[in-house]
Write a structure and sequence with these properties.
There is one protein chain. The chain has ten helices and 13 strands. By secondary structure, it is an alpha/beta fold. The chain is globular and about 55 Å long. The chain folds into two domains: about 5-110 and about 295-310, ATPase, nucleotide binding domain (Nucleotidyltransferase, domain 5, 2-Layer Sandwich); about 120-290, Nucleotidyltransferase, domain 5, CATH 3.30.420.40. Helix 1 packs across helix 2 (about 85-95), helix 5 (about 180-190) packs across helix 7 and helix 5 packs antiparallel against helix 8 (about 225-245). It has helices spanning about 35-50, 85-95, 105-115, 175, 180-190, 195-200, 210-220, 225-245, 265-275, 295-305; strands at about 5-10, 15-20, 25-30, 60, 65, 70-75, 80-85, 100, 125-130, 130-140, 140, 250-255, 290. It has a five-stranded mixed sheet. A five-stranded mixed sheet has the order 11-10-9-12-13, sandwiched between helices. It has a three-stranded antiparallel sheet with strand order 5-6-7, with no helix packed on it.
Length: about 300
Amino acid sequence: MSITIGLDIGGTKVLGVAVDENGTVLADKMLPSEHEFDALVAGCIEAIDALGYPGVPIGVGAAGLVDLEGRLDYAPNIPGVTRAPLQATLAAKTGRKVVVDNDANLAALGEATYGAAIGARDALMVTLGTGIGGGIILNGGVLRGAHGFAAEIGHFTVDRNGPVCACGELGHWEAIASGNALGRMARELIASGRGAAILAAAKGDAHAVTGRAVGTAARAGDADALELLDQFADNVALGLAGLANILDPERIVIAGGVIALGPLLFDPVRVAFARHIEGVEYRPEVPIVPAKLGLRAGGIGAAVLARTLLT
């Protein structure tokens, strides 16, 4: 049985999975994500060791600009980690074959291999988490670009006067449509004197309000939470429609923590997407679907990439 390990490094967590050739997750381990390189590497090694399967190849997906040599050059949601030789360091410290790519690229690879993008030659993968990541399946393969930096889809400007993105620019799509953005929108609503049910879902601590609290209140039918989700869904759809106009995907797959909102998010996103995309009545419908691999998509995709090291 061919087994590989995949690591998914995000702004808040490192998720490790051991995966067989059928896409079955045999073991997993989640740890907090450190924001200093040596500590981050130590956490990755801890996750690898906890999974077992000594000696098997390792694939790593990291949230940021990963070049073609597996160096994490810039990660806006992992402060303190820049120009980091992640692939070379992990290979040296583990004595194993290691390959590193962008986390959303690998989520796209995972979904194309085992999940919601199976059979699609041209698909767009969008991860809505701490930030927004993207992966583009083009002619059946992952588009990496000239330097490995393709599909940084969270970082195009949708509002020059919008909120500050984690990268420092104003009005990037990530700043209004990521999971973190939903939490910020909810805190702003509470500061305006509304959103009592959202605040209650966060046990009365306004600083602790996240998108999860919005979801809790919305499921209970709270009008403020439902209105906020409609606004957030429109923000999400605005970027999706722009990307669909450029890429013409046959399918859009959404991953990340916000997909736990289910129809509360996907229904208004689909409605708003149809409102924003060019010539909606003249083009085939573009399905917008949740990732089937859930929060493990990036880790599973990393394990799929690691399988290339076996040959």
